[in-house]
Amino acid sequence: FPYDKSRHSMLVACHKDRKKQILGFVDIDGRPSKLKNENIPPRPYLSDLVVDINWRRKGIANALISRCEDKVKSYGSNDLYLRVEFKNNAAISMYGKLGYDAMKHHYFGVKDTTLLLHKCFGHFTKESSSESTERIETKKSRIDAPQGVVDSINAGAFI
């Protein structure tokens, strides 16, 4: 089916010496959604960020996110959205340090265990990254995660 490829990218981080070794991946979708459904995430939307477990905490996720932010700005957008698992404290901390804030949102799927995060590029504030992380943690503590939800088997592999 035809769609605007110029506003949808899949970015891959490869080892600088071993080009075939994939270290990380992320998808960025800036295409307007034709569906009007509260479960559809707002756009542009960052998804499927993953970094090889042996390469985490080396700046790869930050570099991929930065490239996504550059892409979004090239689309002429001032906003970027993403979802993160409610229990993924490492990712929540990272996104907070990068200036992302938690937003109120409708459930995603049958049982939602995610937070919707947002970053606006249009208005720069001098807020520290720790303040943004603190706001996400405060918002997170106010949201009751569904009881009895089992973490997916691969949850540890995603950032």
From TrEMBL:
InterPro entries assigned to the protein according to its UniProt record, in alphabetical order: Acyl_CoA_acyltransferase, GNAT_dom
The name this protein goes by in its record: N-acetyltransferase domain-containing protein
TM segment ranges: none
Family annotation (Pfam families): Acetyltransf_1
GO terms, molecular function: acyltransferase activity, transferring groups other than amino-acyl groups
Entry-linked CDD domains: NAT_SF
Residue span(s) of domain N-acetyltransferase: 1-122
SUPFAM superfamilies: Acyl-CoA N-acyltransferases (Nat)
Source organism of this protein record: Proboscia inermis
